[in-house]
Amino acid sequence: MNNNSEDEQLAKSRDIQIARLAFIGASISTIGDGISAYAAALALEVLEEANNQRSQPSSSHFKNLDLAQKQLDYYIQQLQHMRQWMK
User: Fold this and answer.
1) pLDDT tens digits, 58-84
2) Is the pTM of the predicted complex or chain greater than 0.85?
């Protein structure tokens, strides 16, 4: 009977590890989707500006790039936290 209890504990531990991996995978995928969507928005903005024949970047463009850098830094920080959490 003791062996059966150990098997149940092992199965529960594996289930937790599997759920944890699923959570990490979904989180990374979501962060990647966010980065891709933001990159697409930036590309669209650049194309629209080029279409409007604006040859000099505006200050709002630099602000958007700064915001993009901050968001990427945040996503990288979140991935690092997740990696620490897994250890």
Assistant:
1) 666 677 778 878 888 888 888 888 778
2) no
3-state secondary structure of 52: coil
Determine the residue type at 21.
Answer: L
Which residues does 65 contact at the CB level (< 8 Å), separation at least 6? Answer: 42
Neighbours of 33 (CB within 10 A): 10
Those residues whose C-beta lies under 8 Å from the C-beta of residue 71, and which sit 6 or more positions away, are: 34, 38
Separation between Cα atoms, residue 36 and residue 3, nearest integer Å: 49
Residue 24: name the closest of 67, 84, 82 by CA: 82
User: How far apart are the two ends of the chain, measured CA to CA in Å?
Assistant: 33
